[in-house]
Amino acid sequence: MADSPLGRTLLVANPAARSGHGAAGTDFAERFLSSWPAATEGYDVRRTSGPGDARALAAGAHDYDSVVALGGDGVIHEVVGGLMQIEPEGRPQLGIVPLGSGNDYARTLGMARNDVEASLAQLVRGRVGSLEVGSVNGVPFMQTLSFGLDAAIALDTTARRAHATSQEGSALFVTSGLKILSRARDGYPCVARFDAQEPRDLRTIIFAIQVGPSYGGGFRICPDADPADGLLDVCYNVSVPTIPHLLGLFGLARQGLHARSRVVELQRIAHAEIDFQVEPPCQVDGEKLTGTHFDVDVIPHALRVILPR
């Protein structure tokens, strides 16, 4: 443990994560840290009780070397948002103990999922890397921003988790997708401007902007996305497929094979401006975002993140 990168550590934990498994996970993490004094240079544990708590706790973590988020992508999103409120020179590094249904940021980082002991072991033996963060209308995101069908499905899965569905991961994403697909025939008209390119008129069904490759519990929507390359990856439809074709793309996306279709286009960008005719379904790391105009930027090297060796 002598080489642990954690330093003085704040553990921000969501006891309600994964339908209540977060409480036991938090207790285990606290026992783990108290049993191995060499893992940190002192630690505090703070349990969240509602939305916004994790963001506020991370934003106030000026005196810590590391902030570790225990929970699903929602609590990680809040912690990242809080850390981004701290000036870069004093910003603690981020660690995660993934305990959720989707766990897509954990997939991006290569962290053990829903195994508190294994992920803590990865952290205390880990290395620190410098990763980008996305920003949409001033809201930081660590993994996914999406519009249209993608967002409608993501928001539906979030709502179903809140009502304690027994489904998790890609199964949850698939069943939400099948329920919502019939609403996607016409898409959401928008004008998209990527970097210095000419504006594109799109009818958005698939429109995702990614830091890492996957969302929805492992669907590799931008299969080559690299969180350390200083760019965001975009996947969007350039024509409106039929419902059977869309179902086929939906199935192929699990392995990233939809990227071969002429219906979709992928590219890497540093900036985007997107204007919709009417307000579309929009989600950022699973949280609802409203509006018709969206300014999107990448913030390279925004976070120092503890990664597994």
Automatic annotation (TrEMBL):
Domain (DAGKc): residue spans on this chain: 4-140
Keyword Kinase belongs to the record: yes
Assigned GO CC terms: plasma membrane
Keywords: ATP-binding, Kinase, Lipid biosynthesis, Lipid metabolism, Magnesium, Metal-binding, Nucleotide-binding, Phospholipid biosynthesis, Phospholipid metabolism, Transferase
Required cofactor names: Mg(2+)
GO MF annotation list: ATP binding; ATP-dependent diacylglycerol kinase activity; metal ion binding
GO biological process terms, semicolon-separated: phospholipid biosynthetic process
Domain of life: Bacteria
Pfam name, any one: DAGK_cat
Family the UniProt entry places it in: Belongs to the diacylglycerol/lipid kinase family.
PANTHER family in the cross-refs: LIPID KINASE YEGS (PTHR12358:SF106), SPHINGOSINE KINASE (PTHR12358)
Protein name, per record: Diacylglycerol kinase family lipid kinase
